[in-house]
Amino acid sequence: DIEISGGGTLTSDTPPQSLSRAADDPYVDLPIPTDMGCDVSGNTSARDDDVLTPGRYCGDIRVQGQNVTFEPGTYVIDGGDFISNANSEAFGEGVTFILTGDTASDVGGISMNGASTATFSAPTDDGNPYEGILFYQDPIADYRTSGNEARFNGGVNLLMDGVLYFPRADLIFTGGSTADPSCLQVWGATVTFSGDSVIGNEDTICESMNLETSPQFRILLVE
């Protein structure tokens, strides 16, 4: 389901269509890295000018400062959330964040708040299994489980190129959150835009990133 309310704006060359069946999922067979132990145990707090490296983080990743850099690679967040706090600023080129856990309730989500800025782009190198994937949530997550959602609140500024893949969770854009026109592909059980949130998308940029797409189907009753 997609809900647009309260001043929310969606700009897309392929806008949502009512009476459509669920889109085919091109990422359903994407593998999740097997548990090879924790590179970092416990919650990670990234402060001013910190640099994080790829690996398995067993706990939250919390961006709490300015000019936080994520080096290229895959970040597995096992049993934790990705949290970007008030007025924080994070950068990462060629990065993928995978949210996973042992059970549905262990799988984390995203929380970005309070005028934070996230400038991220997904990998584009051929042969990378996560080419084009920015955030990937383990499909064992359940949208009925509290805490699994991806939430962008309160003036968040998103400069993101890639896929937000949350096939069994809610994606919520509220309170003046913005995503400048680029390539932000959104997959979710439900997607909500409200409170003057704005998201723009350009198919030409997505094509240059070799992102998977799914055609739209509209269901009509013909007598």
Explain this structure to me?
By secondary structure, this protein is mainly beta. It has one domain. The protein has a 19-stranded parallel sheet that branches. 36% of the residues are buried.
Task: Walk me through the topology.
Blueprint: E1 2-4, E2 9-11, E3 40-41, E4 44-46, E5 51-52, E6 55-58, E7 61-63, E8 68-70, E9 73-78, E10 82-84, E11 89-93, E12 95-100, E13 110-112, E14 117-121, E15 133-137, E16 150-152, E17 157-173, E18 178-193, E19 198-201, H1 203-208
Parallel strand pairs: 1-18, 2-19, 3-6, 4-7, 5-8, 6-9, 7-10, 8-11, 9-12, 10-13, 11-14, 12-15, 13-16, 14-17, 15-17, 16-17, 17-18, 18-19
Question: What does this entry show, briefly?
Answer:
The protein is mostly beta strands and 223 residues long.
Shape: globular
Overall pLDDT level: 82
Number of domains: 1
Share of residues in helices: under 10%
Distance between the termini: 27 Å
How is the biggest beta sheet arranged? 19 strands, parallel
Number of strands: 19
Strand content: 35-45%
SS class: mainly beta
Q: What sequence of helices (H) and strands (E) makes up the elements?
A: EEEEEEEEEEEEEEEEEEEH
Q: Uncertain regions: pLDDT < 50 for 5+ in a row?
A: none
Count of DSSP-assigned helices: 1
Radius of gyration: 17 Å
